[in-house]
Write a structure and sequence with these properties.
Blueprint lengths: L9 H15 L17 H6 L19 H14 L7 E5 L2 H15 L4 E5 L5 H8 L4 E4 L9 H10 L5 E6 L11 H10 L5 E6 L4 H6 L17 E5 L11 E5 L10 E2 L4 E2 L10 H13 L1 H24 L12 E4 L4 H6 L9 E4 L6 H20 L12
Parallel strand pairs: 2-3, 2-4, 4-5, 5-6
Antiparallel strand pairs: 1-7, 6-7, 8-9, 10-11
Helix pairs in contact: 3-9, 4-5, 6-7, 10-12
The chain binds pyridoxal-5'-phosphate.
The site of pyridoxal-5'-phosphate has 13 residues, from helix 4.
GO biological process, one term: carboxylic acid metabolic process
GO molecular function: aromatic-L-amino-acid decarboxylase activity; pyridoxal phosphate binding
Cofactor: pyridoxal 5'-phosphate
Length: 392
């Protein structure tokens, strides 16, 4: 066995601190807000074990948990999403866990259920379908990147006898497009597909859209009849600085009826066993510490920055686009010189930046400047004059 000698870790923490601060300003491609911080929680954070094992509705034997606050967090998110009083939920380790919980609940109710989701849904969905051994039908997207409801209706019609789980996305990972949930419900109604679940993956846009609805963008929350569950990430809009999420059901899932485990004294209703009690505190600070109006102001600020970014990029010849509600501005893949300096995810058709609250107009100015320089170099080297049009 290798013996681990104790080390002085101070210099490492210092180096990492500098590295993360320096890298942070160039990181405009992923949707993690970092404007809300948690220095006031440092004591609790650094010196206390907090384990929310089991059901948030049932404390269990242990006392070192934050389940009372977890329920408040679930209720605050459920209120924002217009969930009825019959709601049920818990704090997950991310949107992916919430979606998995909803899929598992659907499979328990309807063992023959087929999952339907658009080609622009999150890449983890295919893995979840495989893990849960549920068939997944991938639906095409329209020009805006939203699920093609006519294509969905066609696929539903081919399997009318089977239960359907539709995962609607708000918004998609690359373009922040929002699926038309009322139209999805209407398509199911038309075909009398009553054995169905409609789960909204609102990882990034679920809360912003519910807080500040945008003209022409359909509702994606529980105000839409037929939505059975929804999930949001905590580390995206709510700036928890570590991965977590909040899952909300309209009515309790089947798992909620599970009996108590004698060892923990609480029912095993979540996907994970032990669960962080710290992320709940951060969610609470973000939601209750700022309050609804401050979060609405954050949404408007992000949208304003995104409008600015889109216009600035277009002015230098970049074919940039955004949806009316979106923090995301997407454009054709930029030259590699740019992505070496800036954290900008790209596939072969599209790249994007996401104007989270900490992204400033001067960050955008620097990015646009570097984009222009990189395109100029490209032209000198005989490359394309302008990046190709984004597909969405
Ligand atoms: C549409 C969508 N769903 C799910 C996820 C994954 O969320 P989480 O990291 O909270 O599991 C993302 C992350 O970018 C996303 O864009």
């Amino acid at each position: 066995m290798t013996i681990i000698e104790p080390q002085d870790l101070g210099p490492l923490w210092e180096r990492l601190g500098h590295q993360f601060t320096d890298d942070g300003r160039q990181n405009i491609g992923f949707p993690g807000a970092t404007d809300i911080t948690f220095d006031d929680l440092a004591g609790l954070w650094a010196g206390t074990l907090l384990n929310n094992i089991g059901s948030p509705y049932d404390g269990g034997h242990g006392r070192n948990h934050t389940k009372g606050i977890e329920l408040q967090v679930v209720n605050m998110v459920a209120d924002i999403l217009s969930a009825p009083p019959s709601r049920w939920g818990y704090v997950t380790d991310g949107a992916t866990e919430g979606t998995e919980h909803a899929l598992l609940d659907a499979r328990r109710r309807f063992p023959d259920a087929v999952i339907y989701a658009s080609a622009a849904a999150h890449y983890m969905l295919a893995e979840l379908a495989e893990k849960l051994m549920m068939p997944l039908v991938v639906i095409g997207v329209d020009d805006g990147g939203r699920i093609d409801v006519a294509d969905l209706a066609g696929e539903l019609a081919r399997r009318r006898d089977r239960a359907a789980v539709i995962v609607a996305v708000a918004g998609t990972t690359m373009a922040e497009a929002v699926d038309d949930v009322p139209a999805i419900v209407a398509a199911c109604d038309r075909m009398s597909i009553n054995r169905r679940r409609i789960h909204v993956d609102g990882a990034l846009s679920g809360l912003p859209l519910a807080l500040v609805p945008a003209d022409g963008v359909p509702r994606v929350d529980f105000s839409v009849r037929g939505v059975t569950s929804a999930v949001v990430s905590g580390h995206k809009f709510l700036s928890t600085l570590e991965p977590c999420g909040v899952l909300v059901y309209r009515e309790p899932p089947l798992a909620a009826a599970a009996g108590r485990v004698s060892y923990t004294g609480t029912a095993s209703v979540t996907l994970a066993g032990s669960r962080s009690g710290h992320t709940t505190l951060k969610l609470y600070k973000s939601l209750a510490g700022l309050g609804t109006e401050a979060h609405r102001a954050r949404v408007r600020h992000c949208r304003d920055t995104a409008v600015y970014a889109c216009e600035r990029l277009r002015r230098v010849g970049v074919d940039a686009h955004r949806h009316p509600h979106a923090f995301t501005v997407y454009f054709p893949p930029p030259p590699p010189e740019l992505t070496q300096r800036w954290v900008v995810p790209a596939d072969d058709r599209c790249a994007h930046l996401i104007c989270m609250p900490q992204v400033t107009r001067s960050d955008i100015d620097r990015f646009v400047h570097d984009f222009e320089v990189a395109m100029g170099k490209r032209r000198l080297l005989g490359g394309r004059r302008k990046p190709a049009m984004a597909a969405t």
